[in-house]
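Weekly structure sync, notes
Attendees: PL, DS, HV (note-taker this week)

Item 1: Integrase
DS walked through the input record. Source organism listed as Streptomyces calidiresistens. Sequence as pasted into the shared doc:
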Amino acid sequence: MIVELSPLPTPLPHRDEVNARIRLLMEQPAGVERTREYARLLTLWAAAGRPELVTAA
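Item 1 (cont.): predicted structure, written out as tokens:
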């Protein structure tokens, strides 16, 4: 019997990694490609979720 497996979801990058990519992107000249990439990175950033909140003692 052959079992078909559904594809694994693409793992999301960590928010810090996305932030670093955004910082590097902002060093590039403004233009259509940078705008598209910025929108894509913002979507990834939102999908990565909120960081864990740690309350101070």
